[in-house]
Amino acid sequence: MAQSRQEFRNVIRQKRNLLLPNEQKKAELALCEQFFSLPEVLDAKHIAIYLSNDGEINTTAIISELWAREINVYLPVLHPFSSGHLLFLHYLPNTPMQENTYGIPEPVLDKRLITPLTQLDMVCTPLVAFDRMGNRLGMGGGYYDRALAPWFEKKANPKPIGLAHSCQYVDKLPTEKWDVPLPKIITPDRIWSW
């Protein structure tokens, strides 16, 4: 019996939230190792990533290593005037933070720190689930689908890469016409490419 998108979200979110703290830490470090084995990461100077929430694989080790390698880091911020859209702000260890409407920490909006998507080399995207075709199921707001639509149409910068726990893989997801499949998804034990 086919599962709905919301059923997939519920099941996979429950799976990743059941991971123990030591499993989460092990996954975070393994993901970081996989991430920095990618040639496109080693060539990048501007990478957008997100702060983990709701059982998502922890991105702290990746962010710390990006800073150590002097790679510029950017975080998503909910656009204050254009509902459903994201802005990407330069992120440093001392960046003032606040919680957005979803309870997720984001940089305090400072227009001097906004960087256009086209100036980023890569956008690391969160996801709830992914399948063998690179289809990504998010939380349902469509924020990343809107942000990545130009890449999907033109295959220009920034390149999207999904980050996930291994347990977030499913064989086949139900998709919608606006979904943006990802060319690469990294899990602690594998790099998936399409």
Automatic annotation (TrEMBL):
Highest taxon of the lineage: Bacteria
Single GO MF annotation: ATP binding
Protein name: 5-formyltetrahydrofolate cyclo-ligase
UniProt entry keywords in alphabetical sequence: ATP-binding, Ligase, Magnesium, Metal-binding, Nucleotide-binding
Annotated source species: Vibrio caribbeanicus ATCC BAA-2122
Transmembrane regions listed in the UniProt entry: none
Binding site for ATP: 5-9, 136-144
Needed co-factor(s): Mg(2+)
SUPFAM superfamilies: NagB/RpiA/CoA transferase-like (SSF100950)
Residues that, per the record, bind substrate: 51, 56
Alphabetical list of Gene3D superfamilies matching this protein: NagB/RpiA/CoA transferase-like (3.40.50.10420)
EC number of the protein: 6.3.3.2
Reaction catalysis annotation: (6S)-5-formyl-5,6,7,8-tetrahydrofolate + ATP = (6R)-5,10-methenyltetrahydrofolate + ADP + phosphate
GO BP, one annotated term: folic acid-containing compound biosynthetic process
Pfam families linked: 5-FTHF_cyc-lig (PF01812)
Protein family (similarity comment): Belongs to the 5-formyltetrahydrofolate cyclo-ligase family.
